[in-house]
Amino acid sequence: MNLNEKLEIATVGGGCFWCLEAIFGLVKGVENVTSGYSGGNVPGEPTYREVCSGRTGHAEVIQITFNPDEISYEDILLVFMTSHDPTTLNKQGANVGTQYRSVIFYHDDQQQKQAQDVIKMVSSYYDKQIVTKLEPIKVFFNAEKEHQDYYVNNKEQGYCSYVIAPKLTKLRRMHADKIKVP
Fold it and tell me: What's the distance, CA 27 to chain centroid?
């Protein structure tokens, strides 16, 4: 990484963070992806078990550090909005609960405006109304170590094979121009 690069941050949630982390790990211009939690309403740093209970108000999210000279925030959001179902409230596949909600946590007014524009742009591609929430980022908590790079470290597990791998195939099909070259 060039020291003169101005990196930016995007924070999104769209179901299980393992899926989104695997997807954005393949996207050009993405320097780092961290699984974590945001949007909760309880004091202290939440644990995975607490977030999965649905009682903390947190969503499973990823925080993406990216180089805007290589990929725009708008393109980050386009990949996000097409890599999960933004029309299901508090549900992605078999994962149900507010911790799996579709949400964009914006970091400034410009990100908020761009997120509104992207949602409006993609809404015509869906038969149902988009339910993705826009919220200002307040705090981001890193998920525990075993949740970082989950797909890379657990490709043989059933969830990875049956849920994440097809999403990666869809990413390659829909956004081939945005995939890192190995």
Answer: 12
**Residue 110 belongs to domain spanning:** 8-172
Residue 21 lies in a domain: yes
Residue with tokens 């200002």: 136
Residues of the chain with pLDDT under 70: 1-5
Residue 21 near residue 33 (C-beta atoms within 8 A): yes
Q: Tens of pLDDT along 72-123?
A: 999 999 999 999 999 999 999 888 999 999 999 999 999 999 999 999 999 9
CA distance 145 to 142: 8
**Any idea what the Cα angle at residue 11 is, between residues 70 and 153, rounded to 5°?**
85
Flag whether 2 is in a domain. no
What's the structural domain count of the chain? 1
| CATH code (residue 15) | 3.30.1060.10
pTM passes above 0.90? yes
19 part of the active site: no
| Three-class secondary structure of residue 130 per DSSP | coil
Residue of 16, 19, 52, 160 with catalytic role: 16
Three-state secondary structure call for residue 122: helix
Instruction: State the SS3 of 52-100.
Output: HCCCCCCEEEEEEEECCCCCCHHHHHHHHHCCCCCCCCCEECCEECHHH
Amino acid found at 62: I
